[in-house]
């Protein structure tokens, strides 16, 4: 789920023009900065696609060898694998894959996240596969002996969407591994880095690690079958059921098809929406405004543990409306235990020329530390804006309404400046 901030290096934001195929190719060439030097040019007889596949395979091999070298250097250690606060199937499955790979080097990994699992498919994924992820709240973290960890790992995120990161860094734990498919969010010093914004899912990257031999999957090992199933779900989820998949993603899915459990995956996908999720979807329908084929809806106050994952599901629903190509749904999510409030939003789009990452970064900008409030990937994006000093006080219903009205108006204003640049969104 990174919210998370992806491919700012992909095609630049455009709401009206169609993409230029030649420019897209040039941009893709620029992004493949970590590839080994080209030794020969592809022939002009139609083998260019095969050349790109071979080049991708070469990068996967190179990165796998680098990761193997890093793991060897950290044998017998203990590591924390930190996921975004609200991990999605891509993050969960890849963290599990890393844990299984690291086990071969006698590295013990604890997979942790600070938020919650509220999306019904994520809950089903963890329960049905026994995926070993743990919830660590900030209070839990205070009671942990962090000195027992010699390193931490970031997978499918770069720390910008985890409450845990500052405490981990403050404890002096070094970053050992960073693997992500979102664009770089800032400078992070890590021993091993594999960031590929042009890949649709981190599950594709980890499947490539498996393909070149970092872990030999075995159909007779239940844990391997369940992990392969989780990876298939993660890949499917981040590519919109493979409809936005590229050649690398299809090849990864083809490899996983030899190991995953189709019935288990179907059981995960059949998880029912809760009544609370349906209520949020209903609220988004009632509150939406539609301008220039954008559907924008504020859904008010939501509970941190129970309702947060209803926001992207509402966006998924609104984007299916006739004559709508992009939906943005947002709300104020509050955690009564920690007196924490944050504006959380999700974007979904079917418009090929709209880059969610560029759109969200342009709309909401950066915080005082220079970190973007959100970002995206192909077809989807998200943002989180801490409310800070204005958090809490909602027992006063009049104040709570005023606060919501202000944030609702400000978010609409920032979005509509891009959707309708000539309009005054406060007056419209």
First-last Cα distance: 33 Å
What is the strand arrangement across the widest sheet? 3-2-1-4-5-6
The chain-level mean pLDDT equals 85
The best one-word shape is globular
Q: Which sheet architecture does the biggest sheet show?
A: 6 strands, parallel
Taken as a percent bin, the fraction of beta residues is 15-25%
CATH class type of the largest domain: Alpha Beta
* Domain tally: 2
Q: What's the CATH architecture of the largest domain?
A: Alpha-Beta Complex
Find the count of extended strands (DSSP E, 2+ residues): 12
Compressed to H and E, one letter per element, the order equals: HHEHEHEHEHEEHHHHHEEHHEEHEEH
Q: How many DSSP helices? A: 15
**Helix share bin:** 40-55%
CATH superfamily of the largest domain: inorganic pyrophosphatase (n-terminal core)
Class based on secondary structure composition and strand pairing: alpha/beta
Find the CATH topology of the largest domain: inorganic pyrophosphatase (n-terminal core)
| Low-confidence segments | 1-46, 48-52
Radius of gyration: 21 Å
Describe this structure in words.
With 428 residues, the protein is of the alpha/beta class. The protein folds into 2 domains: 21-29 and 49-269, inorganic pyrophosphatase (n-terminal core) (Alpha-Beta Complex); 275-419, Diaminopimelate Epimerase, Chain A, domain 1, CATH 3.10.310.30. 41% of the residues lie in helices and 17% in strands. A 6-stranded parallel beta sheet has the order 3-2-1-4-5-6. It has a 6-stranded mixed beta sheet with strand order 7-8-9-10-12-11, with helices on both faces. The longest helix has 25 residues, at 48-72.
């Amino acid at each position: 789920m990174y919210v998370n901030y992806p491919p700012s290096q992909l095609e630049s934001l455009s709401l009206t023009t169609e993409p230029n195929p030649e420019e897209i190719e040039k941009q893709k060439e620029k992004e493949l900065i970590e590839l080994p030097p080209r030794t020969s040019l592809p022939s002009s007889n139609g083998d260019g696609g095969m050349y790109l596949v071979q080049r991708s395979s070469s990068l996967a091999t190179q990165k796998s060898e680098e990761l193997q070298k890093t793991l060897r250097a950290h044998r017998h250690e203990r590591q924390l694998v930190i996921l975004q606060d609200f991990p999605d199937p891509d993050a969960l499955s890849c963290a599990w894959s890393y844990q299984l790979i690291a086990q071969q080097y006698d590295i013990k990994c604890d997979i942790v996240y600070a938020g919650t699992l509220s999306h019904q498919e994520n809950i089903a994924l963890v329960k049905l596969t026994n995926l070993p992820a743990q919830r660590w709240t900030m209070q839990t973290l205070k009671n942990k002996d962090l000195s027992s960890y010699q390193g931490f790992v970031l997978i499918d995120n770069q720390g910008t969407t985890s409450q845990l990161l500052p405490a981990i860094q403050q404890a002096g734990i070094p970053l050992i591994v960073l693997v992500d498919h979102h664009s770089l969010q800032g400078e992070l010093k890590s021993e091993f880095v594999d960031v590929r914004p042009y890949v649709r899912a981190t599950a594709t990257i980890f499947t490539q690690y498996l393909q070149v031999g970092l872990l030999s999957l075995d159909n007779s090992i239940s844990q391997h079958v369940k992990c392969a199933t989780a990876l298939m779900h993660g890949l499917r989820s981040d590519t919109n059921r493979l409809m936005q998949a590229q050649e690398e993603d299809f090849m990864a899915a083809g490899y996983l098809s030899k190991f995953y459990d189709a019935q288990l995956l179907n059981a995960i996908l059949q998880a029912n929406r809760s009544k609370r999720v349906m209520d949020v979807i209903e609220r988004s329908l009632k509150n939406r405004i539609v301008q220039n084929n954008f559907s924008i809806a504020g859904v008010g106050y939501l509970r941190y543990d129970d309702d947060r994952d209803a926001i992207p599901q509402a966006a998924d629903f609104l984007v299916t409306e006739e004559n709508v190509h992009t939906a943005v749904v947002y709300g104020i999510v509050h955690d009564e235990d920690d007196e924490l409030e944050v504006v959380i939003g999700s974007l979904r789009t079917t418009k090929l020329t709209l880059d969610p990452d560029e759109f969200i970064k342009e709309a909401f900008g950066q915080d005082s530390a220079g970190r973007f409030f959100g970002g995206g990937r192909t077809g989807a994006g998200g943002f989180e804006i801490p409310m800070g000093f204005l958090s809490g006080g909602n027992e006063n219903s009049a104040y709570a309404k005023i606060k919501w009205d202000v944030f609702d108006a400000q978010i609409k204003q920032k979005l509509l400046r891009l959707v309708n640049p000539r309009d005054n969104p406060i007056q419209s």
